[in-house]
Amino acid sequence: MPIAVAPAPTPAARWRNIGLQALIAGLLLALLWWLIDATATNMRERGIRSGFDFLLEPAGFGIGESLLPFDSTDSVLWALAAGLANTLRVALPAILISTLFGTLVGLGRLSPNLLLRKLCGAYVEALRNVPLLLQLLAWYFIVTDLLPAASEALQLAPHVFLSKSGLSLPWLGGDGGLLNLPQRGAMNISGGAAMTPEYLALLLGLSFYTAAYVAETVRAGIAAVPRGQSEAALALGLTRLQNFRLVLLPQALRGIIPPLTNQHLSLTKNASLAVAIGYPELVSVANTTLNQTGRAAECIALIMAVYLILSLLTAWLSAWLERRSGRWADRS
Amino acid sequence: MRLPTIALTLLLFAHAPAHAGKTLDQVRQKAQLACGVSTGVIGFSAADSQGRWNGMDVDICRAIAAAVLNDPGKVKYVPLNAQQRFTALQSGEIDLLSRNTTWTLTRDASLGLHFTAVTYYDGQGFLVPKKLKITGAKQLKNAEICVQSGTTTEKNLGDWFKAQGIKVKPVVFEKFEASIKAFFSGRCQAYTTDASALAFIRSKEAPNPDDYVVLPELISKEPLGPVVRRGDDEWFAIVKWVIFALIEAEEYGITQANLEQMKSSPDPAIQRLLGGAEDSGKLLGLERDWAARAVKAVGNYGEIFQRNVGKDSPLKLPRGANALWNKGGLLYAPPVR
Question: For chain B, what is the domain count?
């Protein structure tokens, strides 16, 4: 097939091109600088303190559940780090669950079994068309309404309790020795590792919501592989499974990974909806910090920077995966 | 909600020019007072089913509109959440923040704001289910405590339990509704917020009010009051003195009902306050009868209190610390003279 190739630009045209791009980049930088400078000047004129010095002051507030050890006398910076750790603590498992479950649902939509196909289709439509915030609230109130109060916790196994305070499990480390066992207290379960209802609701809500999108991505990726490929493979005597593993999947993955990355990015950002159901992730902690210190511009800039870094990291990881899957496809 | 907050912060800071000393002129020119209120705190600022705003903080807005514009209805209410409130004032979107806001050093000294006066002395307390048989806050060891974000509440909680050497776990919700729903479903062993709100939450939101009890301790001081921008001393003085005038009016027994008779009172202090003998308004840049207009619009401080949070309201809060200084409370206004 003939491919149209643009003629090579003349040297003059190339320089014009470079000059134009430099001009646009310069204008953008100037605009950004002007925004920052005007903000700083206006804030100074109105006697509003600005700067990031507050990060090293003691936070003063507590964080209900934290992967990192946190106390209210620790610095604001450490509180934000604990918030970020909590974001990752929910985002990473949710990415894993949504990808696996979503792939299964996506394959189910291509299944020759009518019932399975319709069920998977219904799942996708139902989850995709209800706002995530509502789903999170629903999960949360289901979890907290169904479970018994902490004082009447269900004991599932020795030192494993399930209650409105969440799922308490034995965990390594702690105050007295190798294993930290949850104990039934007068009012509450203490010790061990706890998965709170907030965490569980967020994990389930994010996973199942994103799985619906992942399913569509997987379905579309596989459907995009020309039909002739499968027909050829089956004609050559490959089994259905071999056809899928060796012919369909390698070609489909190239189309699946980029949109899949978008889903993973959205999932991480959607984790910030946790403020509605009381899970202390990054935005929740930053909101509290904003309220205590009044440094609105700084706190919001920090949140934006952290999400930008997270997104760039994810995109970079995905590009790497894409290159790898490309090699895989070429090899097979 | 998040996006508007970001937009507000970045754009308004960058754009709006500083306009020190012009708030009064602007309010008069627009013939409207832009008043920042809460998104709904019963008794302080909440919109009813017809969209009319009611509450103590709302009455302060109305009193100032009456004093400045001679019409308590010329107020534009701007509902703000806790994250937006200071930015809205700093950027000039509102002329006055009258939104159950606690006066603290950090806020007063670093946000480009001035707290004007205290309109309500509050304190942070706890609501617990009766069946836990807790009689004091010190028994809340290891408890999970539901709290709404965006207030001084979280820090008080950290400070107080730190001082007691007790560990508690805050469960922080962004929305009031979610926080009380979680508490009444049994997620937390205690709920904490300002005492003024606890009474209401117990009587109106609890499935059965008798199953819940408010603990006796208050763990913090929460002086609430209206806030203005820095750099406009004229406007600062107006807001401050309208509030003082409402308190003075109660002290001298001037009410919405007897205002006209009081105008002919022989008492020189009353004459001064209501603009009979001296023109106190001139010094503030207002009309002679500024204080009388404010009282006519919303009544004196005592009337505002009883109507919105006191015995004539569903909240039925006692005057307590919010009684006049000569009746055992903390309210003490400098003299209008």
Answer: 2
Cβ contact B251:B333 at 8 Å: yes
CATH of the domain at B81: 3.40.190.10
What's the rounded Cα separation, in Å, for the pair B82 and A280? 17
ipTM of the complex: 0.77
Reported as a single tens digit per residue, the pLDDT across B188-224 is 999 999 988 888 888 888 999 999 999 988 999 999 9
A71-75, A210-214, B258-262, range with the lowest pLDDT = A71-75
Give the mutation candidate from A288, A295, A304 for the B interface (greatest B CB count, under 10 A).
Answer: A288
Write the CB contacts of A45 (distance below 8 Å, at least 6 apart in sequence). Answer: B18, B231
Tokens for B96, please give them.
């006055």
Q: Which of B288, B293, B285, B290 is nearest to B277 (CA)?
A: B288
Could B142 and A49 be called an inter-chain contact, meaning their C-beta atoms sit closer than 8 Å?
no
Cβ contacts of A95 within 8 Å, gap of 6 or more: A210, A264, A267, A268
Q: What angle do CA A8, A10, A15 make, to 5 degrees?
A: 115
How far is Cα of residue B239 from the mean position of the Cα atoms in its chain?
13
Q: Which residues contact B122 (CB under 8 A, 6 or more apart)?
A: B100, B102, B194, B195, B196, B222, B223, B224
Nearest CA in chain B to A62: B158
Instruction: Cite the DSSP H helix spans in B117-192.
Output: 153-164, 176-184
Alpha-carbon span A131 to A211, nearest angstrom = 14
Cβ-based neighbours of A53, under 8 Å, separated by 6 or more: none
Q: Within a 10 A sphere around the Cβ of B284, how many other Cβ atoms? A: 19
Tokens of B329: 């409370």
Nearest to B181 among A46, A141, A164 (CB): A141
Minimum CA–CA partner of A297 in chain B: B9
Residue A120, number of CB atoms within 10 A of its CB: 22
Do residues B42 and B138 both lie within one domain?
no
| CA–CA min distance A271, chain B (Å) | 13
Structural domain including B35 reads 2-121+224-327
Query: What domain range includes position A218?
Result: 76-331
What does the longest C-alpha to C-alpha distance in chain A come to?
Answer: 83
Nearest in space to A306 (alpha carbons), one of A54, A21, A85: A85
Here the tokens at position A4 are 């149209």
Residue A261's H or E segment, with its range, is helix A249-270
- Output DSSP code: residue A48: B
Burial category of B43 from C-beta neighbours within 10 Å (exposed 0-12, middle 13-18, buried 19 and up): buried
- Residues A318-329 pLDDT 10s: 888 878 776 655
pLDDT grade for A147, boundaries at 50, 70 and 90: confident
Name the residue with tokens 């009380």: B180
Instruction: Please give the tally of structural domains in chain A.
Output: 1
| CA atoms of B337 and B335, how far apart (whole Å) | 6
B333 belongs to a structural domain: no
